[in-house]
Specification:
This is Type I-B CRISPR-associated protein Cas8b1/Cst1. The chain folds into three domains: 175 residues, no CATH class; 84 residues, no CATH class; 84 residues, no CATH class. Helix content is 49%, strand content 8%. The protein contains 15 helices and seven strands. The strands form two sheets. It has a four-stranded antiparallel sheet with strand order 4-5-6-7, with helices on both faces.
Length: 366
């Protein structure tokens, strides 16, 4: 039996479960290794069980339950099974191992060894075989609250199917999936990708972005997260990875998903382009790029240059001046200090915009 367990990305529900699990480990100061894959020490599995209750109590300020008619995972275990689950089953989970006798549709397949199950079987009250069958098949106890659409909505990374075989570890990890979702004005979201490191980073960036404004639309949240990743990580992603970055949206019991066009994703993940966009510091320009209106950058620069001339000639900027389509103007431009600061900003931007446009064209092959 290997000392560590390695988990690789799979479908979005499994990935969300792993990310929620890592969040609990992080909060409880339990080490793990995070790359494209995740590597955990076996004792972390048992420790995470008490950890998830502690996380809900101390961070979310709410009571967490998987017993009986709870809100998130109703009937995951029955009240009379709780003692067995906590004192026997959970203690056996760190022993999970890969086996050729059973398969898991989500991971390499980590099952509690038969010898361990036989040892604890007599501690169970009720139908032990039925209880174990529930741990080995994807069913209602794993996704209650997500809605029937979970089996119908297509997913560009991995489709979820109903009643497929899963392993004991996956059946456990899935009860952490709700912790990976982030509340927004358009529902709860989780950014999914084919790399756990990328998933972890993008969702962390999303939490930071939403501290500025809870009203950002999903397109802007995803775009801003990609931008931050490019600036802070400065790493190249393969085309297949970029194609499979998506946002899972939970809203009113319905599951939906959203992604950006590939050319926009490619642009935002270029570290040089991302740095130029950040230096411009203008949401209207960022919105143009998110909409794929790249040619508008030339128009924006034209009106920047015209505005510089107007301000130098002490001309007023009218209410319907085209510059307002691309930039937010400061209040009280009659103030010499404010005017000078804004002029310096426009002059800086007039040098960045042409470079930004050229680099975008090079990136998308325009």
């Amino acid at each position: 039996m290997e000392d560590k367990i390695t988990l690789y990305p799979s479908n979005w529900l499994y990935n969300a479960g792993v990310v929620g699990f890592l969040g609990v480990l992080e909060y409880n100061k339990i080490n793990f290794e995070l790359n494209d894959y995740v590597s955990i020490e076996r004792p972390a599995i048992e420790k995470s069980y008490n950890g998830i209750f502690k996380y809900h109590q101390e961070v979310l300020k709410e009571r967490f339950s998987i017993t009986g008619r709870n809100l998130r995972y109703p009937n995951y275990i029955q009240p009379k099974q709780r003692n067995f689950f906590e004192n026997h089953y959970i203690k056996c989970l760190p022993q999970v191992n890969k086996t050729s006798n059973k398969t898991c549709s989500w991971c390499e397949g980590y099952f509690i060894p038969p010898t361990s199950l036989n040892r604890i079987k007599n501690e169970f009250v009720g139908n032990f075989n039925k209880f174990m069958e529930q741990r080995e098949k994807f069913q209602g106890i794993h996704f209650a609250g997500l809605g029937a659409a979970i089996t119908e909505v297509p997913n560009s990374f991995w489709n979820l199917n109903f009643s497929i075989p899963i392993c004991h570890l996956c059946s456990y990890l899935v009860i952490f999936n709700h912790l990976a979702f982030i509340k927004t004005s358009e529902g709860e979201i989780f950014i999914n990708a084919p790399s756990f490191k990328l998933i972890w980073d993008l969702n962390k960036f999303t939490e930071n972005i939403l501290q500025k404004s809870k009203e950002y639309e999903i397109k802007k949240i995803l775009g801003s997260s990609l931008l931050q990743w490019a600036i802070k990580r400065r790493a190249l992603l393969g085309a297949w990875t970029m194609m499979n970055i998506e946002v899972i949206v939970k809203r009113d019991g319905i599951i939906d998903y959203f992604d950006l066009p590939q050319n926009i994703t490619k642009v935002l993940l270029d570290s040089e382009i991302a740095s130029l966009i950040e230096r411009i510091e203008e949401e209207k320009i960022f919105d143009l790029i998110l909409r794929g209106k790249f040619s508008e950058i030339e128009n924006a620069n034209y009106f920047v240059l015209k505005t510089i001339l107007k301000l130098k000639n002490k001309e007023k900027i009218s209410e319907n001046d085209p510059i307002k389509k691309y930039f937010s103007l400061p209040q009280n431009l009659n103030n010499p200090k404010i005017l000078e600061k804004f002029l310096n900003y426009l002059q800086k931007v007039s040098k960045i915009l042409p470079e930004l446009y050229v680099k975008i064209l090079e990136k998308i092959g325009g």
